[in-house]
Amino acid sequence: MAVKSDTAADLVYQIFDLQRAVRCIATASTKGQETGVALQGVLRFVAEGETRATRLAERLGVSAPVLSRHITDLEEHGYVVRRQDPDDGRAQLVALSPAGAEKLRRIEEQRVAALQDLLREWSEDDAGETTRVLRKLTESLRISARAMAAGTTTTTS
After folding, report:
1. What is the dihedral of CA 56, 58, 60, 64, to 10 degrees?
2. Which DSSP state fits 1?
3. DSSP state of 86
């Protein structure tokens, strides 16, 4: 059964509201750190494995020049390393350095502790169910985004 228009509109609102709340919390927690929210996001994606800078820009939804500035900042802090792609000398591969892995570990520990504190009145069941639903939503949106990029979606009126 398809999701009703009113339900979809409410879900869109709730997603954006959640996104704003998370951004506010993340921004407050990064004050005084050398890596802001954007750089931390890049670190997280780089941690998934060495990848081409262009692929990373696509995954993050940013332009190549924006990503290049972020990578330069992270490289200056010693958190990432770049090297030429052996398969294509024009492309660069980006990977996390040991210092970057340690920085990301500390960031994630801080985020977990902050969320535990913010959700101290939630039950373990509430948190688990929310995780399950968010994972399902994320996967559905990823599948739909891939289909749209491939040009295989159809709309019905």
Report:
1. 70
2. -
3. T
HSE (CB half, 13 Å, CA atoms) of 71? 26
Give domain 34-119's CATH architecture. Answer: Orthogonal Bundle (1.10)
**Element holding 111 (H helix, E strand):** helix 98-118
> Would you say 100 and 43 are in contact if contact means Cβ atoms under 8 Å apart?
yes
Backbone angles phi, psi at 82, to 5 degrees: -120, 150
Residue with tokens 């929310």: 130
Query: Which among 43, 41, 6, 45 is positioned nearest to 26, based on CA atoms?
Result: 41
pTM of the model: 0.73
pLDDT tens, the chain, 157 aa long: 689 999 999 999 999 999 888 888 877 766 666 667 778 888 999 999 999 988 888 888 889 899 999 999 999 999 999 999 898 888 889 999 999 999 999 888 888 888 899 999 999 999 999 999 999 999 998 888 777 777 765 554 4
At residue 67, what is the residue type? Answer: L
* DSSP at 20: H
Q: Name the one residue in this structure whose structure tokens are 């994630």.
A: 108
